Amino acid sequence: MSVLGGIIGLILGGLFAIFGALTFGLLPGSSAVALFGPLAPFVAPVFATLQAITSLINLHISVAALLWYVFAILFTWLISELASTSYFGSASHTSSMLPAATRPTLTPPPVERLLLGIMIGFAVAINSIFWVLAGKHPHQFPIPGHASLSAVIALLALLPFLCVFMAVSTSRGFQSFIAWLGWLLPFSWLADIVGFIGFVIAGIVSAAAGTFAGLRFDPATSSFELSITGLGTAFSMGHFNLVSAANSSPFNMPGTSAHEAGHTLNTMLFGAPFLAVNGIMIPLNQPVPHNRVWGELLAEGHRPHTLPGLPFSPLWTP
Q1: DSSP states of the chain as a string?
Q2: What is the pLDDT of residue 312?
Q3: Which of 122, 163, 216, 246 has its Cβ near the most Cβ atoms within 10 Å?
Q4: Domain residues of the chain, as ranges?
């Protein structure tokens, strides 16, 4: 089901990316239609309508980009809610479908695997098409050797699609590849930009307050961790993670640090909207435990605990 979902996701993500390119003026309508080959006569009216609406509204590119991201978040929210519901049986996630085994691996329903593939394909298409367009617009994207370099990155951006196969997604080596490649994947950049700013501010404030406890780097997930004494929570913002000093743990063992690094992997694979949706769903689903949210289940699977009550969805660990 993951492979089928991945193919569906590639189509949806491709359409979404092309619509965005049309809106931003990076792709003429005729060029976009030509990409669909024999389906061109069917999609031509859609693109013509979209261009007419775009020219009528005449949105500033920053507003168009914001709306594009909002739609991406809404789509991701829908997928995440459906996936969580597939595990726990209701939209509120109130039922307790926890496995009896000591190692609390949830058995993925077929629909969850389908949705997982859709999210993977969706993000992969957006990332790859971005770099294809970047190679065709040297003025908007002033990258040295832009044409050849963009083509190489566009091809590399397709490789995370292999995560639709469990044997690949559970490979620690491939996980590291995704984490490092994530620095070049535009669908996750917003998380890294916000994360870096928040990381620097938190570091300065904690140092001034005397609560700075340590700064570490995890090569396996290309993520930075700032530990702060007295921090009442832990959260991830792309490649930048904040944890309480009391809960900081080895990166390669079950614990808070490995869990937050799991969020880093999620963000690099699914994009920044997935991280945003995860953060939104946790407070909205209260008082239901936060580990019933799909993003939490996947992150916990990075280095899963062996304790009952801490379930995980198999992606990073079988």
Answers
A1: -HHHHHHHHHHHHHHHHHHHHHHTTSS-HHHHHHTTGGGHHHHHHHHHHHHHHHHHHT--HHHHHHHHHHHHHHHHHHHHHHHHHHHHSSTT--S----SSSS-B----HHHHHHHHHHHHHHHHHHHHHHHHHHH-TTTS--TTHHHHHHHHHHHTTGGGGGGSHHHHT-HHHHHHHHHHGGG-GGGHHHHHHHHHHHHHHHHHHHHHT-EEEEEEETTTTEEEEEETT----EEETTEEEEETTT---TTSSSHHHHHHHHHHHHHHH-HHHHHHHHHHHHHTTTS-GGGSHHHHHHHTSS---STT--B-SSS--
A2: 80
A3: 122
A4: 2-179
pTM for this prediction:
0.83
In the chain, the amino acid numbered 306 is T
Please tell me the distance from the alpha carbon of residue 3 to that of residue 174, in angstroms, as a whole number. Answer: 18
CA dihedral 265, 16, 114, 171 (to 10 degrees): -30
